[in-house]
User: Fold these one by one.
Assistant:
Number 1:
Amino acid sequence: MTRQPPKWITAACWHNCGGRCLNKVLVVDGKVVRQKTDDTHPDSPLFPQQRGCLRGRSQRQQVLGEDRLKHPMVRKHWLPGGGDKELRGRDEWVRLSWDEALDIVAGEIQRVKRQYGNQSILAWDYASLYYSQKMTGGWGGGSEISQVLSLYGGHTNAWGSTSWGTWRDTGKKIGLGIANGTNDRLDLQNCQLVVMWGANPAWSSPGSATYHYLQAKRAGSRFIFIDPFYTDSAQVLANEWIPIRPGTDHALALALAHTLITEDDPATNPLIDWDFLNRCTIGYDVMHLPEGADKRHNFKDYILGSYDRQPKSPEWAAKICGVEPDKIRWLAREIATTAKVALITSFAPARINNADSWPQAFMALGCLTGHIGQSGRMTGISSHRNAANSGPALVVAGDDGVEFVPNPLAHSTINQNELWDAVLTGRYTAGRGDTKEIDIQMIYHACHSYLNQKSGIVKGIDAHRKVEFVVAQNYVLNPSAQYADIVLPVTTQWEREGRLFNGNREMLLFPDKVMEPYCEARDDIWIAKELARRLGIDVAQVEPVCGPQQLFNQLAGTKVINKDGDGYEPLVTISPGDIAAMGVTGKPQTGRITLGEFKETGIYQVSRSPGDPFSYIHLKEFREDPAAHPLDTPSGKLEIHCQAIAELVRNCGWTEIDPIPKYTKPCEGYEDTFSGWETGTKGEYPLQFYSIHVLSRAHSCLDNVAWLREAFPHELLMNPADAASRGISTGENVLVRSRHGAVRRPVRLTERMMPGVVALGQGAWVAWDDEAGVDQAGSVNVLIGAIPTGQGHGGYNSCNVQVLKE
Amino acid sequence: MAQMGFFYDMTACIGCKTCQIACKDKNDLAPGLLLRRVIGFEGGKFPQPWVYYLSLSCNHCSSPLCVSACPTGALYKEAQLGAVLIDQNKCSGCRKCQQSCPYGHIQYNESTGKVAKCDMCRDLIVAGEQPACAGSCVMRALDFGPLDELEKRCKETRPLKNLPNSGLTGPSIVITPKPEALRAP
């Protein structure tokens, strides 16, 4: 037997963690024996190795874990129509052949369509949900089933911002932008002060983000962290930690504005950048309102309380947010009198019910202080792939050439916060004053972890036990699969041909196939084609471009910024031999590196150096000349008065907001912990609960990996003062109960968590105990209710709980 | 020989445990066995808590107590890198080394009936690579190299909480501490 020499292969780390890094595996005699990370070039702050985090380094535990799904399965007590549907989630499993399983799935799709219509089939159009996997350089499929169903007449979908909170619609409408909110990482070193408002990159944006912030600190930047928890980011970076109650950031922002507006004197105490405010924004005062606007809807009069008789003073805000008035004034003066400030936030403070105006209040602070659009000055989101390093991508994957088939039932889409109710009651809100009927009888989970990762899990389980058929395809028995009738085992990215993956703006990853499919696992696209055959759909329409051709298209179209930074050029040199070896159609081309080199290295990364042409200042051209570089808003400016977002929210049909960022009490925010706000009497759910991204998971992925559970036990974070009054000691099991469900967890007492607030890491797989009526695993979405507000976003950080000793 | 050692900048460590996991992967360790551990220490009172982490593996001491304690000669300090290693063929599983290590590093492996310890990823170093842990650190808080080079990067000599005095065994590690980690004078 000839033995293959040991070989390092670039292995996909495909997770939606906010980073994406280079991981390689050593394959010896066909077996993956260990991993390593980026060692493709010497490491330096300017040209950092793209080092994987503990999750990436655990991947072979995940891909080769004993709990990988090996065979198609049906639950023992399933029958066409559902059988004993109450046993979903707790039934036994029976192995099927692929043909048996696919025949059942296709048969049920046909039956449900015939009996109830296509609208009765709930699936998820992953591409439209996430603005196209194509733009992100490959999330590993996800839309294959949606495509099949779209070709078969369509399916019902769900909508609503998940990670981005209210930035998705508000950020866009007010002109600040959604995700590209800071300057590039080298410019960050020019900041004198960095305010990290609800941002914890050490846990939420791995990859190099926290390392970049550390460079800024070493270059002299001061850091202020505003957060309910003294995070690990704060522990390394913070000069000051300002504890704040979850969901009260809006009140603090208004009070900061109040300090600036009341204390500013252009001659003796300049705090406000009047030039920026006048030239680049609308809505500050009556002189800067759009045509036809209600004159009372100006920011200044609202802050001063001219009409509602309530000045949004630090005293007013302190009662809500828990930050002392003196500290609020100090913070406002600090931000306003420092020349170069980064006002940075993440999406967490926007994942609050009714928080549609929060991004606008945050932006207003940047507008007043003028910390926008210059070197060392920025206001906006620094998160996920753009964390600590915004700007256009310096290396961009080419388009894979796949055109998505539109869903004929694209209009049949239910907001995430009403989805389970819609299944259970047959009704949903289709817009303002518009209720529609729907009869969901089939749920098809492909690619995601919807049941666990959307709020209202208890209703979600009821919904799964109501419909006639549930099918899930996955590589492991996550909650979506656990509650299915049929489970189809799929391959991971390690078992597929290569595909380009993006990470941060400076690099592109080229993972390769590591191993053959695990046991009987098949690719999602194979399943889609098999279903298509059985449904009488032209298979060529399901896979219009084959895998190798998709990869070739990506490679051929990959562009890298040229040396002068004023255009892009092809990255990959492709020879006729390359084209023949891949078995695809295409033309040879010249680029910077050969296809072979790219594949061997597994990554292409652009190096940075001071003064290079790859920097980015967010809104620089706009600030210099708003007329020549208008923003995509009706006024062309940043809109502190924004009619468009008020209309959007109104049209969704649940709540209303004003065009200026008025404070709105969030449903299940701090105020709702009281039964009597005026008297200060606490209610039945006296503690605030929020859900935090943790390092041991990428959302719900990797929850099943033992090494990660060992490193980060899943514990409720609680302040000792709250525990003492309940007779709770650290390490004890407690019951956490909300208006929507209950979970059991051991508690970890820590002075790092502010009193009145508790938190759990998000992503633990629900282990619903039907007898006890409690989740034993601590899945946050058992506690968090699916409450539709504003733009229909997920309010994952707005929840009230009680914690009880067991 | 050039004694090799670890450099740990506590001020840059976010406690992510990537080094711990990288070690587990390199050494194929089951849950329960940690040849590199990241431990967090907290104190203070809200709103001024403090936190620091320690990432520790074997310190490959100049005067290793484990080597002296071992009755079979299984534990030894090799000459090329100064690594303290175990010859598993000679280990009797008596655990005297585990009892003697003032850093609590040595682990007992129930399934083999023998002890386990960090071997400095000697096979990787000999092949020109970094130890798995040092090359993995996302904050570049953990590093590895000749001890005398590492000692030039940090002149701190004050003793740290939760660690024995370095005079006891002469650990080959340089730690840049946070103020909270220093022992009270």
Number 2:
Amino acid sequence: MGRLIKITDEPISIDEGVQHVESHLNGGLVTFTGSTRSSTRSKSVKYLFYEAYVPMARSEMAKIADSVAETFGVQDIAMIHRIGKVPIGETSVLVAAAAPHRAEAFKACRYAIDTLKDTVPIWKKEFFEDGEVWVGETPAGKPKHA
Amino acid sequence: MASPIHSTNNQAESVVVQLFAKAAELTGTRQMTLHLSDEETVGTLFRRIAIKHPELGELKASLRFAVNHEFCDDTRRLNAGDEIAVIPPVSGG
């Protein structure tokens, strides 16, 4: 119950996020996981690296949890982001939201991941056979989905 | 005119600037400590950094700034001890 906000350089446990928001008061639980893709813009990706401005990332994630509580009445939300080197096919981000009914859980989960990608200071670098590139065209802090 | 950048250990009159991701890579620097000039804002401080690090030019239009972990615009006034972050476009998820 309650919120879980975590930035970790360990593999993400989906169970940890789900178990945190489960409760006998919550009839609906929605989980989003994002994972690292092997291909982008038709180039083959070897692995990804994530960097975070950790204290600010945590406070921006807390703001998202505040908004979710205020807007959708959803108190039970887990947000976990992995940083450091992440091999292809592994989970880089998890959002789990639980509520008495599914509609709020879906809305909360969608809002949280969309906003996280727009406002939380975390950066992703793709490593290819022949080079590397920082991803990101959207200026931070200007939510497209708010 | 822009005043020169001084490295300093005098916390009483200085601020710490942190750079991330591409901004850190382009400048080869993750952190700098700078003296505050009179009436310093995020904008005036960043102009001094950009003069010293012209390699930031390609990123300039897309950069955002934070002071003490809060996004702000470049008119934000700075106080001694503030932590300023230079934030390239984010790409978490």
